[in-house]
Amino acid sequence: MTMTAESEMKSVAGAPVAAAPAAEPILKVSNIESYYGPIMAIRGVSLEVPRGSIVTVLGANGAGKTTILKTISGVLDPLKGTVEFEGKQIQRLDPDRIVRLGLGHVPEGREVFPFLTVRENLMMGAYIRTDRAGIAKDLERIYGYFPRLKERLDQPAGHLSGGEQQMLAISRALMNRPRLLLLDEPSLGLSPILVKEIFGIIRRVNAEEGVSMLLVEQNARMALETAHHGYVLEVGRIVMADTCERLRESKDIQEFYLGARDHGERGERRWKRKKTWR
Fold this sequence. Notes:
By secondary structure, the chain is an alpha/beta fold. It has a domain of 185 residues: 3-Layer(aba) Sandwich (Rossmann fold). Helix content is 35%, strand content 26%. The chain has eleven helices and twelve strands. The strands form three sheets. The protein has a six-stranded mixed β-sheet, with helices on both faces. It has a four-stranded antiparallel β-sheet with strand order 4-3-6-7, covered by helices on one side. Strands 1-2 form a two-stranded antiparallel ribbon. Strand 6 and strand 7 form a beta hairpin. The radius of gyration is 19 Å and the shape is globular.
């Protein structure tokens, strides 16, 4: 049998999982379990974000992707496990303390302040800062990434299009100069053209400013083209992890997340079979 990207993956709990990235992690999540009331949403999840890289978590609706981000940013407290940011455990800290440490969170659904103007929304992202010159410089940097926001500075955020609101939500988080940015479904509800534009900006911010990112996304194709490392989450547990290049080569990823279909000799489509990591 030839050695392929899939066969090189290590196995954890019956699932093909690659070795952890060698670079120093800015974020390390270890065996976290989080609940909504009596319901366990994520179980034994471990992942790392190497400093300066983009890591994506793929999964269907209800898999627990958003719960991971909420647990990291302090919105939810894990019942078990640890969350380390730059070597410091942050689980069970209040969200405002975590923000002050340099971790930004762009939630699902954009969540802008609809009755505040674009300018006021951006300034809310810098509310813990006192360096006026630095804030002004960062505003100009944001306008360079998202020129449309500069054109709409005095408009209420609720009057913006969905794509513009997503731009504003990302920009508001960047105004705090985060070293790690959590992005929850940035493509949700956007047209393909806007999705391409948003992800282009995400890549630029990572490359030009060195901001590490943890990206939760259902658009697997775009996420795997953007990120460096990826994890696959199913029913609250990690079932596969590797570089995005290798994940794109995985037949399971191609068939169950990228929509590829392989017809066998008898005409039976291979995507109907069970995933090999089960």
